[in-house]
């Protein structure tokens, strides 16, 4: 009966406002579209894309009476999430993820005073001004990673993982990690991989069926896993804080953002626990995203060798046959920045949705009525292939950022392309503030790889032909590429020697 009255109430409000509900798939009584989503194998993009072909750029569905909307247009997403951001900045994350983070992770938590305080700390941690302080260590870590790639190219996955963690732990936390087998990396990476499953309705049915949330664990086995993950998340946060505090007490802590917080707590007006979840979110997003993007870069250079040649030509023109290449060269490397930006776009086309926004009050757009508490999903897979913004409809084309004939082109090329306000980093007040940190982390290493390495498809020993590399991603919001083969070689013996010399200098300055 309550469900019927709720539908009647919404219907009356729609008529009063002269608007109509958005089009969308007709669901089952009571449960709505929950069964179809629960059987998605964790990948909602094919379902949302199918609905878009039927209903357009705004698609509404429901889960147990909760209204949810998929947006497939950047224009609409900009209007709602940016221009009307005061209404659309709350979160609508899956219940399992909210549970394990205790609603303290600033990327996922509801819009409240605690979020505002954590957001302030987060922005200060990854601001452009702050990042400028750590350019030297980024260059060091990138040069060490280039050396590792040349020494053991088959371990590229491990090298990229260590690099992503290495840049972040030194700048944000004040300590070094020397290999992908470092206990901090192993433990953190394992937890992130498990936590990402909390977005999947097939793994955690309580995300979809709220009635299951009050049932005992023996009836819903996944709840015991949620309890374990919540405790593990909290323990990890406490252990990380203790580690940094111990280093500070011993006088061996490097300069870092976490150290700055711990030594000046009174300036931030948040608890150690809240700060812990803030830095945990930085570790999660700031390591996984660059690592994923670097793996995607290798794949794209195998698939589009003409762009590898363009990168090599640009880097050789700027720095010549001698290292070091550094951040001061960035304005002269538009092709490198274009490949990085287009690689980020490519990854989001293949496998990603934005973390949901929740509407805080009734709203209308384009003749559609959205009731309060509606949950919104920005479908990056569709938005980043929008025919008006990306008219060539190509999944990978860095030229769109470099040539005036494309609508995405901007001048001057000493500044553009860059990742500021780029769709894959989110919208409005919920956009990822770490875009600049991620971009710098990627551009410096991509440029060095272009200078020092040749990336090729492996040769099949039987056919003597290049193997077919099929790139696939995990079905999670921040998808990790599944293992794939890649042949990485030094461009010359002399360049390999120079890489070793530069790495020795970097080791000496650690």
User: Mean pLDDT, as a whole number?
Assistant: 92
Number of helices: 18
**Could you state the CATH homologous superfamily?**
Cytochrome P450
Order of helices and strands: HHHEEHEHHHHHHHHHHHEEEEHHEEH
> Between the first and last Cα atoms, what is the distance in angstroms?
68 Å
Total domains: 1
CATH class term: Mainly Alpha
β-strand percent reads: 5-15%
- Main-sheet strand order equals 1-2-7-4-3
User: What share of the residues lie within helices?
Assistant: 40-55%
Could you please describe the fold and organization of this structure?
The protein is of the alpha+beta class and 510 residues long. It has one domain: Orthogonal Bundle (Cytochrome p450), CATH 1.10.630.10. Helices cover 50% and strands 7% of the residues. It contains 18 helices and nine strands. It has helices at 2-17, 34-38, 45-55, 74-83, 95-100, 113-125, 128-132, 135-151, 156-173, 183-196, 222-250, 257-263, 272-303, 305-319, 334-351, 380-383, 435-452, 493-508, and strands at 58-63, 66-71, 90-91, 357-358, 363-365, 368-370, 375-378, 453-456, 487-490. Strands 1-2-7-4-3 form a five-stranded mixed β-sheet. A two-stranded antiparallel sheet has the order 5-6. Helix 14 (305-319) crosses helix 17 (435-452). It starts with a helix and ends with a helix.
